[in-house]
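Give me the fold.
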Amino acid sequence: MSFSSLTLHPSLERGLKDLGFRRPTPIQSAAIPPALEGRDLLATAMTGSGKTAAFLLPIVHQLIAKPRGTTRALVLTPTRELAAQILADLNDLATHTPVNAAAVFGGVGMGPQAHAFRSGVDVIVGTPGRLLDHFRSPYGKLAGLEHLVLDEADRMLDMGFLPDIRRILRHLPARRQTMLFSATMPPPIAELAREMLRQPVLIDVERPSATPTGITQAVYPVAQALKAALLVRLLKGEIRDALVFTRTKHRADRLTRHLAAAGIEVERIHGNRSQAQRTAALAGFKSGTFRVLVATDIAARGIDVSQLGHVVNFDVPAVVEDYVHRVGRTGRAEAVGTAFTLVSPDEESNLRAIEKVINRRLPRVTVPDFDYNAPSATLEVPLAQRIAEIRKRKREERERSQANAARRAAGDRRPHGQAAGRGPAAREAGTARPAGGRHDGRPDARGSGGRPDQQPRSASGRSGQPGHRRHRGR
């Protein structure tokens, strides 16, 4: 089957030809015809199978002839990176059409996004949290919406976005086309589909979790403390570039520092990084500035790098679906790739669960010239040490806070007019004088008893007479 058999608009066919797309992938062949008819869809497909174009092409096809100035399509995604990637794909596909679009996600200013709402761009691609922020404003209305897409729906549920999705649905017209796309189909997704979709066309809904056939997968058994050293050995050998996944954000930071110290061009991407940092890291990885990009699972869904040769699971994912998504970053669009997983003894149970679901035993590989008995400092700080450091830091913070409070309280108790830092002894030494006289021995103008009409004196004890200090050479 070719794209011409799908009866897409000639402008879209021209864009597909420019991009080098000759024939649709299986998910595109199955999803595009019913989507062009306006049917609701519930589609399951592997990561990297081309499902983004499966919903973008029919939407753009139907919007080409519509008047501009009204937002008619909304695509919901779980991460900023995925929203940016979908926007880039839409712009490529619609380059010969008048259809325009905007991305709406956090980490950047709301001004340009508000302008997109007010001007009525044809398509908005956004994340749930930032969309709800705009819906609280008077301009945040999508009354003319005709198409709704939930992409990576399973990941949105994993990230706790289900309540936000339900809130968003209350802001949208009930009469619309809804398409739900997901790499996996857990029971909560099926339940959500029953609530949202009207007699949907089911595509590949019974397919179990699987990895693309073009990916070579292997396991490297290694002690937890030697994982970083083994990864350096692999990166200095047969691996030219790699997307490396870690379990946590802090672990990603530590691994990035370790690889950089070994002379490897590396950058990281995770939820604690600003949007500008995440965008720069991904752009540098795509351009070849960085050989290695270290990422967490949250960022995995938005990373689309053409011709990515290797994916490395530095930590075995605890959820099988996460393994599918990680591995799916390579071998995209029926290409080939390699996925390595570093497995410590305590991760063997998670690996067995993955092998059971994908219905294959992954080959074990040992690097001949690597010293598996070498002493090495663990990348992860032991839990007891982390707790001790946190308690020490909090104790020091409390002590500093108490000291500051004591200094402030002491300052509040000083007599009015007392100079800071001068105690009773200092005042006695600096201000004592003979009874009835001055410090210099001259008679006091007040006499021994003092006069109520005396010349006012400053806090330093000198006369308040004008020009007193100028006679001392100033």
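The CA atoms of residues 230 and 370 lie 7 Å apart.
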